[in-house]
Specification:
Elements (H helix, E strand, L loop, with lengths): L6 E2 L1 H6 L6 E5 L17 E2 L3 E3 L20 H10 L7 E5 L7 H10 L5 E4 L2 H7 L5 E2 L19 E2 L1 H7 L5 E5 L3 H4 L19 E2 L6 E2 L2 E2 L2 H8 L8 E5 L6 H10 L5 E4 L2 H5 L10
Parallel strand pairs: 1-6, 2-4, 2-5, 5-6, 8-14, 9-10, 9-13, 13-14
Antiparallel strand pairs: 3-7, 11-12
Amino acid sequence: MAIENTLVSVDWLLNNLNHPDLVILDATMKKITWEANEFENSNKQIPNTRFFDIKNTFSDVSTPFPNTMLSEEKFQEQAQLLGINKNAIIVVYDTIGVYTSPRVWWMFKSMGHKNISVLDGGFPEWISKEYPTDSENNNEYQRGNFEANYNSNYFSDYKNVLNSISDKKKTIIDARSSDRFDGTKAEPRKGLRTGHIPNSKSVYYNDLLVDGKMKSKDELEEIFNPILVKSNNATFSCGSGITACILALGAEIAEYKNLSVYDGSWTEWGSLHELPIEK
């Protein structure tokens, strides 16, 4: 079975819960800018869920910046240890709604695995339907045979972004809130400069959501059309590479192509004083 849509509903997941190739991943990661929600510290989960640890296991913790993408070899190894096979049908969710789950969707896509979708509305939507849950587990899984095939076009580094600033065929879009974008609000991470990448555009990630679910394709097109030409390359940035993936998800739903995520995002850009900023 192949997943044909970028998003799947909780109804779809319930109907396919016992499919032998289905892998359900919980990508929850504590928000740096918000307080915990009611589900973040719950020990309940969708049945058969496996925890996908973005912050530690699936990030290169040897780098100075958070949430740095793993190498192809390390990602493959950790996915296999999580019991994921190359024929897996992956559905990823989080306890916020749609927050960290798009990051995992984007990571797997960059590794060549296209049979993955984000659960629209995440765990809150599942709970709202009173669908079954079970307790968190610490299961050990039989090693999978997942094969990674990394496509570097999915991620940009600061050099790529720097070169994009003056390129009219490339658009940089920032997912942070408008007050962080314009530098009137301090960054949550101490020591970072305030402001934004020169010539970048502001699209707050939360503007793509309604009650924790993604807006419709038409609504997403209305958001992106004024600032993004469909033939252009788009690079999405945020604080640390997480909510930029929500923009990537929205842009893909709206059928934009040539998308990438700036992995270091503002945590890197704001730390490197040789890089230009605007306010």
